[in-house]
Design goal:
The complex is a heterodimer of chains A (about 110) and B (about 110). Chain A is about 0% helix and about 50% strand. Chain A contains no helices and 11 strands. Chain A has strands spanning about 5, 10, 20-25, 35-40, 45-50, 60, 70-75, 80-85, 90-100, 100-105, 105-110. In chain A, the strands form 2 sheets. In chain A, strands 2, 4, 5, 6, 9, 10 and 11 form a 7-stranded mixed β-sheet that branches. Chain A has a 4-stranded antiparallel β-sheet with strand order 1-3-8-7, with no helix packed on it. In chain A, a hairpin with a 4-residue loop joins strand 7 (about 70-75) and strand 8. In chain B, the strands form 2 sheets. In chain B, strands 2, 4, 5, 6, 9, 10 and 11 form a 7-stranded mixed β-sheet that branches. Chain B has a 4-stranded antiparallel β-sheet with strand order 1-3-8-7, with no helix packed on it. Classes of the chains: A mainly beta (about 110), B mainly beta (about 110). The interface between A and B is medium-sized, with 20 and 21 residues.
């Protein structure tokens, strides 16, 4: 069974930084693209970033490019999202998802 | 960027009756390899999104057969043949043909009348 468990969220001051983690299990992590999607409570889903299996290719939504960095450690089956220069607009629940078929439970970030 | 427009945004339905949600794309979602990457998701209150349908009409494992997807090009539909209480949720379409970015519709809230 695929499991994705996010951690690292919380309350941070504007301009601050936070690193989200997502530990994966139940599948071959290194062979899968991974994504971060966020959702302001009560609002819709918005794609944030993704990374290929070996970490050599990444993509970002325009509104996070230059502030957020996605990465992965395949030895630890873990996906990361380093978020810098945070603002109130970044407050949301952040989900990690394996190619949009399996999703974590989400982690709340409040700026 | 591809814009997905869902309608209606709110859908009150009587238990046992059918429901239909439309998703229209600002451009064709047919990819160069002939696939159409249009998915449907269900998000129950307080839960993560769950994929129901991928590539327009393929049901995910464990999804009841009362859910079906159809469409082509720019027009797509999610149908629930007989709504049950557990179907109360927000439903999203998502396109993965023209990326980045992957884009979602605004969501349609299905509730029981």
């Amino acid at each position: 069974e695929v499991q994705l468990v996010e951690s690292g969220g919380g309350l941070v001051q504007p301009g601050g930084s936070l690193r989200l983690s997502c530990v994966a299990s139940g599948f071959t992590f290194s062979e899968n693209w991974m994504n971060w999607v966020r959702q302001v409570p009560g609002k819709g889903l918005v794609w944030v970033s993704n990374i290929n299996g070996d970490g050599s290719r990444t993509s970002y939504a325009d509104f996070v490019r230059g502030r957020f960095t996605i990465s992965r450690d395949n030895a630890k089956n873990t996906l990361y999202l380093q978020m810098n220069d945070l603002s109130g607009d970044d407050s949301a629940v952040y989900y990690c998802t394996r190619w949009f078929d399996s999703w974590g439970q989400g982690i709340l970030v409040t700026v | 960027d591809v814009v997905l427009t869902q309608s209606p945004l709110s859908l009150p339905v009587t238990l046992g009756q059918p429901a239909s949600i439309s998703c229209r794309s600002s451009q064709s979602l047919v990819s160069s390899d002939g696939n159409t990457f249009l998915n449907w998701y269900q998000q129950r209150p307080g839960q993560s999104p769950r994929r129901l349908i991928y590539k327009v009409s393929n049901r995910d494992s464990g999804v009841p057969d009362r859910f079906s997807g159809s469409g082509s090009g720019t027009d797509f539909t999610l149908r629930i043949s007989r709504v049950e209480a557990e179907d109360v949720a927000v439903y999203y379409c998502m396109q993965g043909t023209h990326w980045p970015p992957w884009t979602f519709g605004q969501g349609t809230k299905v509730e029981i009348k």
